[in-house]
Amino acid sequence: MGAARVVRGDAGLIDVVPTLLELMGIACPAGLDGVSLVPSIAGATPLPERAMRAYEERYHYENNQALIERLESIRTTRAKCLVTRRAADRRITDAVIYDLLVDPHEAHPIPLEAVDQPCEFGDGFAAALEDAGFTLPHRAAATARPTVKGGSAGG
Questions:
Q1: Alpha helices, H only, the chain
Q2: Are 49 and 128 in contact (CB under 8 A)?
Q3: How far, in whole angstroms, is CA 56 from its chain's centroid?
Q4: DSSP class of residue 15?
Q5: pLDDT tens-digit series, residues 35-91
Q6: 72 or 1: which carries more pLDDT confidence?
Q7: Rounded to whole angstroms, how far apart are CA atoms 105 and 70?
Q8: Helices and strands (H, E) in the chain, number of each type
C-alpha cells in the first residue's frame, strides 16, 4: 500500500473484520456490522461519518449489595454522550454531552436535558441518541415538514 499515512476520523473494532475480509479478497457477509476501511486507508474516500457506540458494565457495592451499572458512550467527531444506566432495569441514572469542538478535553459536561437541539451536533448524533432510547422532541420539531394554511403552496 505504500508509505504510512494518517487517516483522520472515527473507526472502531467493529470495522476490523470487514477490513480484513476485503484485504483477503473475501466478500463481506450480509448483515455484518462495521465497514471496510480499505478505501479510506488507500486515500480514495474519507472515513465514514457515523456515530460510534461502546458499552461497559461496572460493579460496585452499596449497603453490602452488589450493583451493576451499564455505561454507554455515543460519539461522533462533533459530540460525545455518556449515559449511565442501572443494569437491572436499564433505567437511566445520568446522561451528559460533551461538545468536542468547544471542549475537546471533556472538562465541561452538559446535562442532556439542558441541550435544546441535539441535532446541533449533527443528525447522525441525534439519530444515535434516538437509537439509544432517548426521545428528542426538538429533533422531531426541527425535521417536521411545515404545513401551509389557507390555500395551495404553488400559488
A1: 16-23, 38-41, 123-131, 137-143
A2: no
A3: 15
A4: G
A5: 888 888 887 777 877 788 888 888 878 788 877 888 888 888 888 988 888 777 878
A6: 72
A7: 23
A8: 4, 5
Q: How many C-beta neighbours within 10 Å does residue 84 have?
A: 15
User: Nine-digit cell at 118?
Assistant: 441535539
Residues in the chain: 155
- pLDDT tens digit string along 101-139? 899 999 999 887 777 666 678 778 888 888 877 766 554
With a cut of 60, say whether residue 144 has pLDDT above it: no
Which grid coordinates belong to 128?
444515535
For residue range 16-30, list pLDDT tens digits in order.
Answer: 999 999 999 998 888
Q: In this structure, what C-alpha cell is assigned to residue 153?
A: 403552496
Please state, in angstroms and as integers, the Cα–Cα distance from residue 144 to each residue in 59, 131, 139, 141, following that order. 42, 19, 8, 5
CB atoms within 10 A of CB 35: 19
Quick check: 116 and 141 in contact, CB under 8 A? no
| Sheet (strand 65-75) strand order | 52-62, 65-75, 79-86, 92-99, 110-111
| All three cell numbers of 81 | 454522550
